[in-house]
Give the backbone structure.
Amino acid sequence: QVQLQESGPGLVKPSQTLSLTCTVSGGSTTTNYYYWSWIRQPPGKGLEWIGYIDYSGSTYYNPSLKSRTSISRDTSKNQFTLQLKSVTPEDTAVYYCGRSPIAGGVDVDCWGPGTQVTVSA
């Protein structure tokens, strides 16, 4: 059974870089043909897909966040990482990592529990 767990700081200052790691157990980020996504939910709003890294290591980002987003992975640790640059209070959200059998979107079949990130001075 695949399990995902997000980790990272819960508080980030404006203009800094938000960095979160998702650790995968019971499965591998290199398994064909899965997509490993980051998704967030701001307070009072719906889910927003941020981007993914796929089984081959290719990445694809939400166009609205692309200029600030980078997703990478460490296959030796079975982890993938989100970096979001130049954050503002509007980036405050619960951040989730997830696995999907399809590319993009929030149709995830396995979710991490989520982690709250607050952007504040």
